[in-house]
């Protein structure tokens, strides 16, 4: 059965973020390095997303909710979320992932509504700023 992918708003994400079982996946390309990012988010750039999809699965082991976003969450974010959902379906592993979500309005919407932006250069972001 294909997994459904739904949308989450910035305020819903902000409320969920303190939970340890959520991962935010930023699929922007170079913009991440100069526009800042959501604290604690993982970076899997859309241009190499398919090549690194198995690494992403390893990195989100133990999480049950994944939130994808790009700058606007109109093209790259939904495309990568769909690729990941299809990948999970193909490998048929018990991954424990219950929710695949897309952040509405993406990073730009997040920042425009005044939500915290982290500007660290740590890879991965430790999520302690903001
Ligand atoms: Zn950071």
Could you estimate the helical fraction of the residues in percent? 25-40%
- Main sheet attributes: strand count, strand direction, barrel closure: 5 strands, parallel
Q: Which class best fits the helix and strand makeup?
A: alpha/beta
Strand order of the largest sheet: 1-5-4-2-3
Please provide the count of β strands: 5
Mean pLDDT figure: 93
Regarding quaternary structure, what we see is single chain
Rg computed from alpha carbons, rounded to a whole number of angstroms: 13 Å
Hetero ligands: zinc ion
| Helix-strand sequence | EHEHEHEHEH
Estimate what percentage of residues fall within beta strands.
Answer: 15-25%
From the N-terminal CA to the C-terminal CA, the straight-line distance is 39 Å
Count of discrete alpha- or pi-helical segments spanning 4 or more residues = 5
- Unreliable stretches: none
Mass-distribution shape? globular
In short:
With 130 residues, the chain is α/β, with parallel strands linked by helices. The protein has helices at 10-16, 31-35, 53-59, 76-91, 106-112, and strands at 5-8, 22-26, 42-43, 65-69, 99-103.
Write up what this structure looks like:
With 130 residues, this protein is an alpha/beta fold. The chain is 32% helix and 16% strand. It has five helices and five strands, in the order E-H-E-H-E-H-E-H-E-H. It has helices at residues 10-16, 31-35, 53-59, 76-91, 106-112, and strands spanning 5-8, 22-26, 42-43, 65-69, 99-103. It has a five-stranded parallel beta sheet with strand order 1-5-4-2-3. Strand 4, helix 4 (76-91) and strand 5 form a beta-alpha-beta unit. The longest helix has 16 residues, at 76-91. The radius of gyration is 13 Å and the shape is globular. The termini are far apart. The model has no long low-confidence stretch (mean pLDDT 93). Bound molecules: zinc ion. Zinc ion binds at residues 37, 39, 118, 120, 122, 125, 129.
């Amino acid at each position: 059965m294909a997994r459904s992918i739904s949308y989450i708003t910035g305020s819903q994400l902000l409320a969920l973020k303190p939970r340890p079982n959520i991962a935010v996946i930023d699929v922007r390309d170079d913009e991440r390095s100069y526009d800042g990012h959501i604290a604690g988010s993982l970076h899997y750039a859309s241009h190499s997303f398919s090549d690194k999809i198995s690494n992403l699965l390893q990195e989100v082991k133990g999480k049950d909710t994944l939130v994808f976003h790009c700058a606007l969450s109109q093209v790259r974010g939904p495309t990568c979320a769909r690729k990941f959902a299809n990948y999970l379906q193909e490998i048929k592993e018990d991954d424990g992932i219950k929710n695949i979500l897309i952040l509405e309005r993406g990073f730009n919407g997040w920042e425009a509504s005044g939500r915290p932006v982290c500007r660290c250069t740590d890879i991965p972001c430790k999520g302690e700023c903001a």
